[in-house]
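pinned: reference chain
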Amino acid sequence: MVDPELLEILVCPETKQQLQQADADLLNRLNLAIQSGQVVNRGGHKLADRVEEGLIRKDGMVLYVVQEDIPIMLLDEAIEVQDLF
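pinned: its structure tokens
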């Protein structure tokens, strides 16, 4: 889990919107889409691994994966979730 103090200062590198922990429902829907081969990140790479944790942008459109408690805040690694559901 991302440190709460870090989460307070993290913002989307693109829009500077605040981020929040993705809820279990969103992660479940994302993982179903990954399992069916529908998820491609902004860099064009198809995701194959489950996402256990993520940070969702305030507008709900983009998710940044968290791996081993470290948010991956690269624009090419971002997942546009609004197109998946």
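why pinned: The chain has a mean pLDDT of 95. The chain is about 20% helix and 20% strand.
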